[in-house]
Amino acid sequence: MPKILMTSVRPDEQAAIQAYAAAHQIEISTTPNVLADALDLLTDADGVIIQQRGPVPAHVYPILKQQGMKQITTRTAGFDMIDLALAHENGLTVTNVPAYSPRSVAEFALMQIFRLLRHTPQVDHQAAAGDFRWAGLQAKEIHSATIGIIGVGRIGGTLAHLLHALGAHVLGYDVQPRAELAGIVEYTTKTELLNHADVVSLHVDLNPTSENLLTAADFALMKSTAGLVNASRGPVVNTADLITALKTGVIAAAALDTVTGEAPIFNQDHRADQLVAFPQIQELWQLPNVILTPHIAFFTNIAVQNMVDTALDDVLAILAGQSVANEVKA
Fold this sequence. Notes:
By secondary structure, the chain is α/β, with parallel strands linked by helices. The chain contains eleven helices and twelve strands. Pfam families: 2-Hacid_dh (PF00389), 2-Hacid_dh_C (PF02826).
């Protein structure tokens, strides 16, 4: 009977994990710890599945090889926490879950787009202080708005369909335009998209070409009334430049579900320390024109089930000597 170790397991994943183990007659051991802190559990494991935002330390890869692992799987779409070169040097096949539920993130981004168009960061901030005036809060209806999507892949394309159904004008920027989105997305340049969008929504993978994709020069191209939604990865946006743009009125607002340096913050309780050890994120959190959420765009019933099932399917296939569609080769 194959035995698979799953690390960084949350309580909400346990039902899906247990159901899979029973249905496939395999043993799955789980730990809330990250992989580097669970290496002692590899002794009798045949495969390993992780989920973490911080990098897997370099010393872990040869240990996986020594323990007879053939693979390392992340049950997330992003795989930047895995050093592909080191994994491959140690004979490890790397897989991810690129399409656990595009609707989960797309629906979350749509919600945030609505919130920015309706000025809810400012409304909530003012109302919490007892200020119920309307000045400066006139909103745009979605069918009168132009929404720019940077990264029109599975998630961005799903968002485009939702926006199109609501009558929004959808601009898209992607290095690989999709013909099937003709009539739904108007593909354009990054500059033109930033110039014309009322809200810009980011849906790109994190890689060397997407890091710092938006900096001060890009914010300067946007309307002063425009908002930004980031439901992709934190380092896609230069945080210091974004803070400056938000504080000086270069752009109006931002809804951030992911930020650089989020690993020790999100899914943690910081009520006692108020994020004092994380000044940039603390500043974003305190700005009245920012909605900060803890990387939960993915977090739906369907997505969690699919992330568990797909990751486990791939591990079993690799252990059986089969190829998998979700292998990350480069």
